[in-house]
Amino acid sequence: MSFEAFLIVSAVLFCIGLYGALARRNVLAVLMSIELMFNAVNVSLVAMSKYLTPAALQDDISTVLTGQVFAVFIITVAAAEIALGLGIVFAMYRTNESVDLTEATLMRH
Amino acid sequence: MVSQAVIWSIFLLPLASFVLIALVVRPLLNRYSMISGFITIGALGTALGFSIWTLRSVALHHDLTFEPVKWLSVGNATIDMGLLVDPLTAVMLVVVTGVSLLVQIYSLGYMQGDPSFSRYYAYMSLFTASMLGLVLASNIVQLYVFWELVGVSSYLLIGFWHERPAAAAAAKKAFIITRIGDVGFLIAILYLFGRADDFAAIGLNAFHIPDIWQAAQPQAALGAVLGGAALTWLALGIFAGAMGKSGQFPLHAWLPDAMEGPTPVSALIHAATMVAAGVFLVARFFPVFEHSADAMTVVALVGAFTAIFAASMGLVMNDIKRVMAYSTVSQLGYMIAALGLGLYAPAIFHLVTHAAFKALLFLGAGSVNHATGTFDMRYMGGLRRHMPITYILVVVAGLALVGIVPLAGFWSKDEILLGAWNGTGLVDTWVNRVTFSALLAGVIVTAFYTVRMIILTFHGDFRGGIEKELEEKAQAAPAGAAGHGGVHLHESPFVMVLPMALLGIAAVTLGYLANPQWDEQLGIPKHWITGFLADGLGAARGLGGHSETLDFSFGMAVVSTVAALSGIGLAIGIYLKRRDQRAEPLEKLGSVYTLLSNKYYIDTLYEDVAVRKWFFRVIAGTLDWIDRNLVDGTVDLIGWFFRNIGTAIGRFQTGQVQAYATGIAFGVLAIILALLLA
Amino acid sequence: MVDGYNGLLTATVFLPAVGALVLLLLVKGDRNIRGFAVLIGVVDLVLSLLVFGFFDRSADAARFQFIDQFTWIPDVGLNANFLLAVDGLSAPLVALTGLLGMCALLASWHVKLRVKEYFVWLLLLQTAVMGVFTSMDLLLFFLFWELELVPMFMLISVWGSGRKEYSAMRFLIFTILGSAFMLVGIVAVFVTADVGTFNMIELSTEATMLTSAGLLIPLSGLFWLFFAGFAIKLPTWPVHTWLPDAHTDAPTAASVMLAGVLLKMGGYGLLRINVGMFPSQTDRFAWALMALGVISVLYGAVITMRQTDLKRLIAYSSISHMGLVLVGIASVGISDGVLTVTGLSGAAMQLFTHGTVTGLLFLCVGLVYEKTHTRYIPDLGGLAGRMPVVAVAMLIAGLASLGLPGLSGFVSELLVFLGAYTAYDWPTVLAVLGIVLAAGYILWMMERTFFGERRDRFANLTDASLVEAAPLVLMVVTIVGIGVWPSLLTDVFESGLNPMVDVLNGVINK
Amino acid sequence: MLFQDVVFWILTVMAIGAALGVVLVKDLFRAALLLVVVFMAVSGFFVLLNAEFLAVVQVLIYVGAIAILLIFAVMLTKDVQHGNQPNRLQIPSVVFASLLLVSLITVAVDTKWDFLPAEQQERVELVQTNAVTTLTGEALTESGVISPEEQAEVQGAGLADLLIGDYVLPFEAVSLLLLAALIGALVLVRPNPGTGRG
Amino acid sequence: MSVHDFYVISPYLAMAGAGLLVILLDLVLPKKSLLPYFAFAALAGPFVLSLIQFYDISESTNLLQGSGVFSTDEPSVLLGALSVDRFALFFNFLIIGATALVVLSSTDYVKNLERFQGEYFGLILFSATGMMLLAAATELITIYISLELTTLPLAALAAFLLNRQSTEAGMKFLIIGAISSALMLYGMALVFGFTGSTQLAEISTSIGQATGDMPFGSYALFIGIILMVAGFGFKLSAAPFQMWVPDVYEGAPTPVVAFLSVASKAAAFAVLLRVFFTGFFDVALDWGILIAGLAAASMVIGNLVAISQSNIRRLFGYSTIAHAGYILVGVAAGVKSGEGIFRAPEFAAIGPDSVLFYLAAYAASNLTAFIAITAISTKINSDQISDYAGLVTRAPVLSIIFALSLLALVGVPPTGIFIAKLYIFTAAVDSGLTWLALLGVINSAVSAYYYIRIIRIMFTQPAVSEEKITVSPAPWLALGLAGAAMVFLGIAPGFVMEAAQSAVRALAV
Questions:
Q1: For the CA atoms of chain D, what is the radius of gyration?
Q2: What's the domain range around D59?
Q3: Which of B72, B179, B624 is the closest to C436 by Cβ?
């Protein structure tokens, strides 16, 4: 259970999320995949917080929490993003009768 | 002593006449267009007087060097506008103003009623001014300037009846062909400027004609600036210009076509003066030419060949003016050949006499045309009964051309033949022999076609004139000829006959009186004109004193007369007694006749093969194709490429948002790879 | 450089623009608009003639005169000045612009479509061109250089004929592409370590000139960057293809301005910048200029022969004639000895004379087109009888174009050839052949258009009216005047070019 | 450490397996539920990484709010039957994702990370584990943080202190962000769309 | 937080407050048409505060370093997260100005909305707050939050019309934005992990210790910085992260597009400069090449694809990509390879100077164009370029101003972008990027083709309708202001240039 292991898990989660975000047709599935990516980042950040030396450790012990603070913000932003995202999804669903991204190609070329 | 202002005014008077007619008379007083004629004649009369004054002054050895006016400075040389007055100039001035004056008087009658009367006189004035400027020029660029102006005057006058397509085409042809020769002249000037530093080093101006003479003297104290092969090329460049203007083979093709102009124009420009400018040019630079045996050989051979070559075509022409045109080319060949052999004075002498009798011949042709409306000798005949004065004058002039004692042509042509036989040592002997033979043969041919022309025109029965011609050709009357349309067989009016008569007098007497062969006549010294000119040349070389002239040789006189008479006899024998007046006996010559009447196919070669086919279709066509398809096409292709590559890239824009995200992922990985590999 | 403010040049340059503004905002009615525009043209012509006339051409006079200068962009980033001045090279071109601008305005008397807009563009164009010839700050120079594009583009694409939009676009893209290279050149000059200035006066003075030390781009690179911009404008082979299109489809006045002064900007740029600022490179690459020049001369002339559209014909002949400018500049390439001003002076003269000659040709063609409604040569013929004034003007222009002595074209061609021959003899001889070709196409064109039998369908043609003839007369007088007394111009040109020649001699004999 | 390793591996399998499920299963509803599993597993990781507070937040926000919202959305959009179809970008997605994975793993393994020195481990752990609790002096003394300065320092290093201290600005900004997002969402689900065109 | 801290962040608070105020006013105001004017007036707050701050600090100082009227000796809690210096203030003015113009130009546009006009302006102002913060942020978390604060309201605004195009645009913007942020976050995480800090100043110190022989000296930095570039690249609309741009530009409300293309882009460049020059300068030689590559790709792709567009907003989408390319040239030109054995990167201030100037000029020109497009498309109800035919007869003055702005975008003098391009290419040549400058000018030439095509259509083709196009006073005012700025920057660029230089001096490492 080394630092690298956490990073690798995070990387795997991130890439699965990326794959999902790129390859799913349903917009909700894409949003879920994006959440996966955010979570993956959070795992890395917290792991770094635990294992690595903060630059200002000598001056300020609280810098060991930077990663966690970062994660808190990411979680919050993710929530906001999902809220807005779902708003757009509903609007899109109302006008398009579909949440399929391959059908949302009115504007192209 | 004649003053500078007087000499300048010889040139300026006709110029002023041109300006006055062009800017005042033509736009404002066109209804009174006769004024133009009088202005011109007045100006030329004065100019003639001044010219004679100048000639006298030169003959009295007055110092006539004047300070030139700076026109343009270029690097180490300046292009000046100045006066170079030597015997050659003086003689030419008189010839030009004299012939011009007579022709202008003649034109009063000939051009009467033409709607563009003023324009005609304006052009004529411009021409005369240019020609005089050319003669007076002291600077080679100045000479070139007037040389070109003379060319453009000729262009304007040939194309005077511009509504006749043939006239417009002939004008263009004349200008372009002479311009080809002028390129040589221009390159010679460029070469001189290229040596300007060397000139400047010894205090000379590369453009100043006397300085060029001086620079070409190998024995000059200052040392030769010009020499060797360069001198030959320089001389040949100048000669190229001369060839163009004087219609020497192979640049002769324009001159016969130039007969599309009004006949007085032909008389003045294409017989007496402008075409002689080539001879004048070679003479002007004779001190340069004579130091290159190679150049002299070329000049002599070209002249000799042209003399016989043009004469041969004159044999078969039906158009009276064309006969004379070829005759002119041929006679110019004599002069050029003479210069090539080193016979400076005889060449100019011949120029002078030729100016008189050839102008007369042309004016005679104009007179005939005035009566018959045509120039085609096949529709003339028997005119001697209706226009006796013209007949007599034309016969006199014709015999002068042939060289019959004691008419003017005899004396001058004999000098040339004699000089060719004797040689001057400037060229190899074989050149002398070849030239002499050609010129002698030329005498026979000249005699033949002259007599043929006289017989066809004046003897036999009248064959219908322009009316008959139109009937046979069934075509619309040429617009410009309308004024002379009808056939009214009678002698020309006085204003036309008077100048002819004066020229006739000159054609009879000029030869002997200008150059008395044995002793002083009427106060004119023995060998006056040749001696005068030869002295001038000596002065140009930097030598003082009197120069050698040729003494009359009975032997040569006999030989040339026999040759002339044999030609005359042959012509009389063939034409005068022929049974069918409409037939052309020379047609019996078969393919030779065809060759001659097609002018050796040279026009075809030039116009159809060289210009139309090779130049226009092949070269210009190819370049045009390249321009439209390759150069332009490349541009269009690039444009097309950019437009379409944009569309192609736009194809990735599928509208599906994840494709865009994939683009981002791809971008990230591409950057990683690129940086790793970089 | 001493700051100074004379004001004459500023007035000359900006008067048309101010006039355009006033026209746009205040003047109503087509008649008034025309009259006002022509008035502006006359005043600007007078101003430009004042510039030319009062230019001190004595030997000890200052090289640059009538200096108008103030700081434009302070020395914080770009250090550019508003700097107008003329030297002997630009003073005649200013006069030329005034003259042709005036003629173009007069030639537009019969424009019916969107009259106000038309004159506004035309006046703006004049300001731009005037600005190019008088700016002595590279940035300002470039500014005016670009400013000229839009009016020209609009003039062609709105008031033109034929494939006008295509042609206008082509003109635009070519020129912008050319100026793109130039811009990089300007930038590179500026950023060079110890330069940091756009001041063209300093950059063309020997002491403060660019040297190969401390350069980011080699001097040769700079030379070619500028050359690219000017060559397209000139235009030289093989970047000439925009010109025939633009000319063919442009309205008369635009053609006059395009051929008369816009092309001159290219030649002026070559002289002012390529020769003036990069003498060593000009010397080094003179052979290339010569090659391009000779090719342009011959290629343009040969293709001119094939043209059947009058304007296209003149356009190709312009390519040929502007090739001579390059040939003249190539006189710099003498291998030894002392360079004289001849060739450069010839090139400058060629700019001026071609401006007047081609301007006149286009004016005439414009009149022919206006009256016959065709420019297709085979449809024309025999016009001389119907419109003698136009025919005479056209003939004079044509003869000047083929280099007839006594008319302006001869002097410039002669000087060009004289100069170039000392450097490259045989190539010059080739270029000289161009004058035969010129005689060919000009006279053939005259023959087919004006001479020959009268056509019935032209029976009702009228000759040029007084207003139409006025610009013709103006130009003919100039052409003949310069032809007869060329020193009037050459002296001025030489006073501008001599300093360059002095520098060049230092380079050549190094 | 064995126990923690075992937990780590269990969580890893859970997280990755569920994540794969999220992106692969056809039924969107199940995908959403699997997403909850991932969230829980990540929460577990947080616990393992001394971030108990974060684990709680994770559960509260992700599972309690985000997942629920998503499940509602899945049900409301009635697209469940179409489900979680793949699009045509399968191959590039897999290729790019795996390439990125390779890069990221390289980063994880090959970077010379600046690991925490062993002597600091304990203090850091103390700060991290108790980020949201107020530690008594006693507890600190037990953990080896004895000097008053050190104690004060550790006591001032809570997450909450940071959020209203050093990170007050992002904290304020994020509140604005939430407000904006909510307003945005509110506007977008309004019943009567404007008629204006783009 | 001390009083001084509040003073420091007062422009941001004022901006956010303005947003809230407008939303609240919407609830109480009876006459909705006055709303834009209130929003406009509310911008005076942040503007005046920024102005005060501007005169309160001198060059290369930071309001947090104890200067200013409310200065205290106590270190601020904001230290490290924010740097309110001339650089930030330059962008404050730029963003406030752009926002003001967008608000003014929206007056006609929002009349189509029956409700939620307040929210429309509120979201714009919130987004503007984010942008201003972005320009001042010096810490990764703050940067991230500001970035999201910028992006999310814009996504909502893009979908604001709730028709198919608009929602699609909003959805695309949101999803691409989210994926980019995720990538960027991973990058930030790696950078944070390697350097042990989220503060740019500390990152800068640590980064110098990376000594591996891979690019950027370490794999974490290598991948981390590239992922961050991807995230910023989305905001910059730089290739290859640009593909969302045309679609969103086509679908979103026109004023929003204007806002997006001007203010959002400016903020993105601000943060790019801040992060790369303050944080990552030690590895500048590596990212210099990277940015140069992006610049080249953006210019080429933007211009080439724009040529074939028929929808004007789509065309402007590609045009904005191209302009991002030009500006990136300036960013790349900020790095000079130093001399000596180690060839440490040298800071070339002229690069960022030119970027700032370009952004100002681009803002003026592009806003002019977009305000004109808004005015026109509201009336002719079409975005097809072919429908702009003969516009000169229907709205002469508007057409002329629009044409001028198009010429400005080409870079024809005497407009701001000409000087800006000159400045940028000067910087590029100065830093040895002549090839890039050459590519840039050639691209400018290519761009003339499609910009001038629009002018040609407006001026030379016959009008489809005779109906005049009328514009209400507020957009006229906006158009006038933007147009004047556009020309002013070309004729007298010195003032803004000096401001840009003084701003960049604050950035200097």
A1: 22
A2: 1-83+181-198
A3: B179
Nearest-CA distance from D42 to chain E in Å? 16
Q: What CATH number is given to the structural domain containing A93?
A: 1.10.287.3510
Is the minimum CB–CB distance between D19 and chain A shorter than 8 Å?
A: yes
In a domain, residue A108? The reply is no
D100 touches chain B (CB under 8 A): yes
pTM of the model: 0.87
Strands B69-74 and B77-81: antiparallel
For residue A27, which phi and psi values (nearest 5 degrees)?
A: -65, -30
Contacts of E429 (CB under 8 A, 6+ apart): C184, C187, C188, C191, C216, C217, E437
E167/A96 touch (CB, cutoff 8 Å), yes or no: yes
**Residues of the domain holding E188:** 3-505
Residues 255-294 of C with CB under 8 A from B: none
Quickly state the pLDDT bin for B511 (edges 50, 70, 90): confident
**Domain span at residue A42?**
3-103
E445 in C contact zone (CB under 8 Å): yes
Residue A47 included in any domain? yes
A29 within a domain of the structure (yes/no): yes
CATH number of the domain within which D185 lies: 1.20.120.1200
A and D in touch (3+ CB pairs within 8 angstroms): yes
Task: Give the minimum alpha-carbon distance from E83 to chain C in angstroms, rounded to a whole number.
Answer: 25
What local confidence, expressed as pLDDT, does residue B588 receive? 77
Domain contains D30:
yes
Torsion of CA B20, B21, B24, B25, to 10 degrees: 140
Q: Which of B358, B345, B517, B489 is nearest to B416 (CA)?
A: B345
Distance from CA of A16 to the nearest CA of D (A): 7
Provide the residue ranges of all domains of chain C, joining segments of one domain with +: 285-510
Would you call C302 and B619 a contact, using CB atoms and an 8 Å cutoff?
A: yes
Q: Please check whether residues D149 and D189 belong to one and the same domain.
A: no
Inspect the interface and report whether the beta carbons of D183 and E145 lie closer than 8 Å: no
Query: Which ranges in B542-631 belong to alpha helices (H)?
Result: 554-571, 591-597, 602-603, 621-625
Instruction: Give the total number of structural domains in chain E.
Output: 1
Count of domains for chain D: 2
User: Looking at the partner chain, which of B659, B666, B672 has a beta carbon nearest the beta carbon of D103?
Assistant: B672
User: Does D have 3 or more CB contacts under 8 Å with B?
Assistant: yes
Which residues numbered 40-79 in A keep a CB inside 8 Å of some CB on E? 40-41, 44-45, 48, 52-57, 63, 66-67, 69-70, 73-74, 77
Is there a domain that residue D171 lies in?
A: no
Q: Cβ separation of E77 and D107 shorter than 8 Å? A: no
Question: Tens digit of pLDDT for each residue in C319-352?
Answer: 999 999 999 999 888 877 788 888 899 999 999 9
ipTM computed for the complex: 0.87
DSSP structure class, residue E142? H
Residue D109 within any structural domain of the chain: no
Summarised one tens digit per residue, pLDDT across range A47-91 is: 998 888 888 877 777 788 889 999 999 999 999 999 999 999 888
Q: Is B669 in the D-facing interface, judged by CB distances under 8 Å?
A: yes
- CB–CB of C143 and E357 under 8 A? no
Residues D1 and D71 in one domain: yes
Chain center to CA of D56: 10
How far is residue B366's CA from residue B373's CA, in Å, rounded to a whole number? Answer: 9
- Cβ contacts (< 8 Å) between A18 and chain B: which residues? 665
Chain mean pLDDT for chain B: 85
The tens digit of pLDDT for each residue in E270-299 reads 999 999 998 888 888 888 889 999 999 999
* Strand ranges for B21-131 from DSSP E: 69-74, 77-81
The two three-digit tokens of residue E166, written as one number:
């608009």
Measured between beta carbons, which residues in chain E are less than 8 angstroms from residue C217?
Answer: 429, 434
Cβ count near C310 (within 10 Å)? 25
**SS3 call for B72:** strand
